[in-house]
Amino acid sequence: MAAAFDKAGLPVPNARDNSGNCAPLGCTQLLTTDAISVYVFPNAAAAKQYAESAAIGVHQAGTVVLSYAAARTPEKDQPRYEKVLAGLL
């Protein structure tokens, strides 16, 4: 997913696989960057539950949740990340 964001001209600095931190969150994959975090869940219901618990700073589509809060993603970039994600799903 980082490659798709990068190809679209969106920042993905310092991308790293933090999937080892997924167990307590219920995700199956976790990609973090200095610009955005991407959580992949086993199903859409689990992704929705996680997104609803976060309440702000997230966007859920299918099994994926984009998190903007920790990275403080600029508001102007958020719809662009969501558009790239939609194209991948």
Give the termini separation. Answer: 11 Å
Query: From N to C, what is the helix and strand string?
Result: HEEEHEEH
User: How would you sum up the major sheet?
Assistant: 5 strands, antiparallel
What class do helices, strands and sheet pairing give? alpha+beta
Percent strand equals 15-25%
Low-pLDDT regions: none
Q: Walk across the major sheet and give the strand order.
A: 1-2-3-5-4
Q: On the 0-100 scale, what is the average pLDDT?
A: 87
Briefly characterize the structure.
The chain is an alpha+beta fold and 89 residues long.
Describe the fold and architecture:
The protein is an alpha+beta fold. It is globular and about 30 Å long. The longest helix is centred in the middle third of the chain and has 11 residues, at 44-54. It has one domain. 31% of the residues lie in helices and 20% in strands. It is built from 3 helices and 5 strands. The mean pLDDT is 87. A 5-stranded antiparallel sheet has the order 1-2-3-5-4, sandwiched between helices.
Strands, helices and their partners?
Layout: H1 2-7, E1 16-17, E2 29-32, E3 37-40, H2 44-54, E4 58-61, E5 64-67, H3 78-88
Antiparallel strand pairs: 1-2, 2-3, 3-5, 4-5
